[in-house]
Design brief:
With 337 residues, the chain is of the alpha/beta class. It is 33% helix and 15% strand. The protein has one domain: Rossmann fold (3-Layer(aba) Sandwich), CATH 3.40.50. Helix 4 links the parallel strand 4 and strand 5. The protein is globular. The C terminus is likely disordered.
Length: 337
């Protein structure tokens, strides 16, 4: 069961369904669909969309009934854009699955599956923004969250609610062998169609090197794979930083993307000058600096990055550009830090 079946979730389903052996080919993927357009995209990815809206609790009944027999629930939906809590997650947990149903769309492997998935895992995808500004220090999951924005505070509240529900078993009668709740904290997500090309073309400035901040990234496909690994290997209530190996400053990231796509590098300005040229949201990203470790991700989830740094993707992009007259672009491109 997937709640928040956007780009990362769709990548996950396509990756698992691309396997030709094992239980991955027999899984039924249920997803919450807020609109007809979302349902169509989910169906193309191999999901069975169920109409529902996290902002309308009365529409969730059917989805929650179907979730009762799912062997895993993956929650990737973001909080709303206001407030200090996440009412969407609260609504989802208000009527938790009891794992007793075995309906038609149960989400379990079919009778021909080569493996049986008997334990329940609940995986929540959060953000590394919960750490706040760490002044460029190297940190790991033992670092206490210190959110500095309302957006990050909503995530901290959601994490606490999620892990508390996991300790209670998510249900009145938790299934034997339940793995409980795990949290993946993801930084800026990038992919070929999620690079800051529009930002570079608009000549949006970046900070001068002496004032620049460290930023963290994860390829969308690697994040999808990490979520899937968490289903099988995450420890109960455990937090994992889903980040790659790069320790780049934000301006360095922009420079490398610009060079790969033959665009001008962004102009560099002081922090004082930057305040007059960027939105408050973008400025908030440039006020936080941290280098986040991923040892727990690799050790406990036995995870190997396919894109250790954004350079791996940029090399692919350059190879594609060399094979065609025009570099690959996409109208959905946006800057994510």
């Amino acid at each position: 069961m997937i709640v928040g079946a956007g780009d990362v979730a769709q990548r996950l389903v396509r990756l698992v369904r691309s396997r030709t052996t094992g239980c991955g080919t027999h899984l039924r993927w249920l997803s919450l669909a807020r609109s007809t357009q979302a349902a169509e995209a989910q169906r193309r990815s191999g999901m069975l969309p169920i109409p529902g809206d996290l902002d309308s609790r009365r529409t969730l009944d059917r989805l929650q009934r179907l979730a009762r027999s799912a062997f895993a629930v993956l929650y990737l939906a973001p909080p709303p854009n206001a407030g200090e809590d996440d009412p969407r997650l609260r609504a989802w947990l208000a009527s938790p699955p009891n794992h007793r149903g075995r309906g038609r769309y149960s989400g379990r492997p079919g009778p021909k599956a080569r493996c049986r998935l008997r334990t329940l895992t609940q995986v929540y995808v959060s953000t590394t923004g919960v750490y706040g500004d760490c002044a460029g220090e190297r940190i790991d999951e033992t670092r206490r969250p210190k959110p500095q924005t309302a957006r990050a505070r909503r995530r901290v509240a959601a994490e606490r609610r999620w892990r508390a529900a996991g300790r209670r078993g998510f249900a009145r009668r938790p299934m034997a062998g339940s793995r409980g709740a795990a949290v993946l904290r993801a930084p800026g997500i990038y992919a070929l169609d999620r690079l800051p090309l529009d930002r570079l073309k608009a000549r949006t400035p970046a900070l001068r090197p002496e004032e620049d901040v460290y930023t963290n990234h994860i390829h969308a496909e690697d994040l999808a794979r990490a979520v899937w690994r968490a289903v099988f290997f995450a420890r109960p209530g455990r937090v994992y930083n889903a980040v790659d190996d790069a320790e780049w400053r934000m301006g360095e990231y922009f420079d490398r993307v610009a060079d790969a796509f033959h665009l001008p590098r962004p102009p560099r300005v002081t922090r004082l000058e930057l305040r007059a040229n960027v939105s408050p949201m973008l400025l908030s990203f440039m006020n936080e600096s941290r280098r986040i470790g991923n040892d727990r991700l690799k050790r406990e989830l036995r995870f190997a990055l396919r894109y250790p740094t954004p350079d791996a993707l940029l090399a692919e992009a350059q190879a594609r550009a060399a094979a065609s007259a025009d570099p690959p672009t996409d109208p959905r491109q946006e800057a994510l830090f």
